Automatic annotation (TrEMBL):
Keywords: DNA-binding, Membrane, Transcription, Transcription regulation, Transmembrane, Transmembrane helix. Residues 241-346 form the HTH araC/xylS-type domain. Gene3D superfamilies: Homeodomain-like. Residues 217-235 have a biased composition (Basic and acidic residues). It comes from the Bacteria. GO terms for molecular function: DNA-binding transcription factor activity; sequence-specific DNA binding. This is AraC family transcriptional regulator. It comes from Marinomonas foliarum. The chain crosses the membrane at residues 6-23, 32-50, 56-76, 88-106, 157-176, 182-204. Residues 211-235 are annotated as: Disordered. Signal peptide: none annotated.
Length: 350
């Protein structure tokens, strides 16, 4: 029986996954496709490098490895409208490329460089996921919790990948690479697929972009507010009250929470208020994030439908603005400490 090295098996699975995303041709999964294709290519090169030990693969491997944290950051930053992908993010891969090609001449410290790169982006992702005033604006509000978890998972995996790079450096320094295959198997057979799943979770949580022409007027007004937002001055009590009033009108009167694709960015456009200011005001007044507040409006609608109609729970969560049953049940339990079925049974009139 022919034995296929593990990296090639993982690369094949990642390539299939990338193909599925490619043929879906969805706007929000394009960056995930690029990332997973990169992971598949990297894993393939790792397999070729350790199977055939060609110098070309030894040259390419660190270059591809340096692109992974940068591309992961791009995938997650695309969910944060304010976090534009800066040109300087290309500098680490460029520097690693130059160092790889010049390796025979001056032996640059590639392993420490890669370790530092993974640590830096890992910490950056984890920090971004814990900033309550910096929620991902392009993610559906019902999916923000899952998106933030994916961001933390990705950051943690990058940190673990840095440990893998460090372990490889130690292994080659003290054991002549005796354990390199085992270390690489852990890194590329476990961590890369997990990182790919985290990226997919984020991409599937993002809502498709709205028609820009339809919201030109809102954008003009919002652009004026954005200039204020750049100063990042603390909101006054009057500003907070005004923001809360506008959001309450949108949620209570216009019932924008019924839109399952509602994002912080869309809410900001409708309110003509910068997203960061909305997050800050909501956190200050309610002590919760905007996702939880919007979902509470949806739960109130669901409670009404549960008691006033005979609709199936599946139809009720769709009619309340939720897109998935899991999110609906999680939020319903958070708000009421009951499942929807238990709530209906306990409150139905005899």
């Amino acid at each position: 029986m022919i034995a296929i090295p593990l990296p090639f098996v993982v690369a094949l699975l990642l390539a299939i996954l990338a193909g599925v995303l490619f043929f879906r041709r969805e706007e929000t999964t394009q960056s995930a496709f690029v990332f997973i294709a990169l992971c598949a290519l990297t894993t393939t090169v790792v397999g070729l490098r350790w199977t055939f030990d060609y110098s070309l693969f030894r040259l390419i491997q660190p270059i591809l490895a340096s692109c992974i944290p940068v591309t992961a950051w791009y995938c997650f930053s695309s969910a944060h409208k304010r976090h534009q992908f800066k040109v300087w993010h290309f500098l680490p891969p460029i520097f690693v490329t130059l160092a790889s090609f010049s390796y025979p001449f001056w032996r640059p410290p590639l392993d420490p460089m890669l370790t530092l790169l993974y640590v830096s982006y890992g910490i950056a992702l984890i920090r971004a996921s814990f900033k309550t005033s910096n929620l991902p604006e392009q993610v559906r509000l019902s999916d923000i919790d899952n998106a933030l978890k994916a961001e933390r998972i990705a950051g943690s995996i990058l940190l673990m990948s840095a440990m893998i790079d460090g372990a490889l450096a130690v292994d080659f320094s003290f054991f002549a690479g005796e354990h390199a295959l085992i270390i690489l198997a852990i890194g590329h057979a476990i961590l890369l697929p997990m990182l790919s799943v985290a990226v997919i979770m984020m991409s599937l949580s993002m809502a498709p972009s709205v028609n820009e022409e339809a919201s030109d007027q809102n954008e003009k007004t919002t652009s004026v507010e954005e200039s204020k937002d750049k100063s990042q001055h603390p909101l006054t009590d009057d500003e907070v009250k005004d923001i809360i009033h506008k959001i309450d009108v949108l949620l209570s009167t216009k019932e924008v929470f019924l839109d399952p694709d509602l994002t912080l960015d869309r809410l900001a456009r409708k309110a003509c208020i910068p997203a960061r200011q909305i997050s800050a005001a909501i956190n200050q007044v309610y002590g919760r994030n905007i996702s939880q507040v919007v979902n509470e409006y949806r739960i109130e609608r669901a409670k009404t439908l549960l008691l006033s109609t005979d609709k199936a729970i599946t139809q009720i969560y769709l009619d309340s603005g939720f897109q998935t049953k899991s999110n609906f049940h999680r939020e319903f339990s958070r708000v009421t400490q009951q499942t929807p079925s238990a709530f209906r049974r306990a409150n139905m009139k005899s």
